[in-house]
Design goal:
Length: 362
């Protein structure tokens, strides 16, 4: 990634006539104030791969590139990833790519194996698991919640005692975000850090406007209907983005495309056989040809090859046994959710929302 270009793009947006420009400028000012207060070597970034953290990462990369001399290589960005129990593999793949792209010095903290969330695997309205192809284990035990976060920060403080402030992508509409300001110290009993919240005043729509205007790479789960990412135990596509007419995962076999005995016979006779040259030559009957064709090309469900005796029944099975029709729900991408109040309706439990068929505009 060209970090200098990131800086140019971010600051150009901040000084543009776009509606989001004041929020971008505000966020950059908060980041700069935090860097001025603590110094480049004492500020880290909390990055969990979500959309808010991705916005913050891009802003932070631009702010740092703007501060460093152009004739010097960019320094690694200190960052912290605190994993939830059972994270999405696609999310972690994105985090790994982003760490390389943005040159993150990423410290990863994972919960112990016994730390699982108490929220059960969500079900669809029809009672079927959302992830049918790879069922998730049911959650058991007690949620670690804030305690797991506190322990992770304690370990981070032990390993990086020089870090005094952490940039966090919290917004005011997030849980526990309503009373926060741009800069807050951690609560008593927690490791001492200043929490810096540059995008605290951003809305759900502002996040997607920024990502799409600057074409910032984000986790592909957001293109699959997810609007808020957590653990696989309590996160599923947002029902507000459900498309009303699901698509079949298999193309049905039409009667016209099924193999008929006549088709099989014609194919074999025309391509592999000629008329006998003498009465003494072996004569091929339609039954013999058809049986031979079936025995070479079709097997039964038990793996046995169709014989001349059961060949006709075998071709009957091919013609009349159509594949089962499997359907899966389809969702519009996260940036098409126009009501930010529904952002977390894909978390925890299934809300009673009806699918919509008309596309939503940004």
């Amino acid at each position: 990634m060209d970090h200098r270009k990131v800086a140019d793009d971010v600051y150009a947006l901040a000084n543009s006539h776009e509606a989001i420009a004041p929020l971008v400028k505000e966020a950059l000012n908060v980041i700069d104030e935090g860097l001025d207060t603590h110094g480049l070597d004492h500020v880290s970034l909390s990055f969990n791969g979500g959309k808010d953290c991705t916005v913050l990462l891009h802003l932070y990369a631009g702010a740092l590139a703007r501060r460093q001399p152009t004739d010097q290589p960019l320094r690694p960005l200190p960052a912290l990833y605190i994993s939830v129990p059972s994270p999405f593999p696609l999310l972690e793949e994105f985090i790994e790519r982003a760490a390389k792209t943005y040159n993150l010095d990423l410290y990863i903290s994972r919960p112990p194996p016994e730390a699982v969330e108490s929220v059960i695997t969500p079900l669809r309205n029809d009672g079927v698991d959302y992830v049918e192809a790879a069922p998730r284990p049911r959650a058991v035990g007690k949620a670690k919640g804030g305690e797991g976060m506190r322990q992770a920060l304690e370990l981070y403080k032990q390993n990086y005692p020089h870090i005094d402030a952490i940039l966090i992508g919290t917004r005011r509409t997030d849980p526990h975000g309503a009373t926060l300001s741009f800069r807050n110290m951690t609560d008593p009993g927690w490791p001492t850090f200043e929490r810096v919240n540059p995008i605290i005043n951003w809305s759900y729509g502002d996040v997607w406007t920024f990502l799409r205007l600057l074409r910032v790479p984000y986790c592909c789960l957001y293109d699959q209907g997810y609007t808020s990412l957590g653990s696989t135990y309590n996160t599923f596509p947002n029902p507000a983005l459900l498309i009303s007419s699901p698509v079949s995962t298999e193309s049905p076999v039409s009667p016209q495309s099924a193999i008929s005995p006549t088709t099989a016979l014609s194919s074999v006779m025309s391509s592999t056989h000629v008329l006998p040259s003498s009465p003494q030559s072996e004569t091929l009957s339609p039954t013999t040809v058809l049986s031979s064709y079936i025995s070479q090309t079709h097997t039964r469900s038990n793996g046995a090859t169709d014989s001349p005796i059961n060949g006709v029944n075998g071709i009957h099975d091919v013609v009349h046994s159509l594949p089962k029709q499997h359907t899966e729900p389809r969702y519009r991408p996260a940036y098409e959710l126009t009501d930010g109040n529904l952002e977390r309706h894909g978390r925890g439990t299934v809300p009673a929302l009806q699918p919509t068929s008309a596309p939503m505009s940004v």
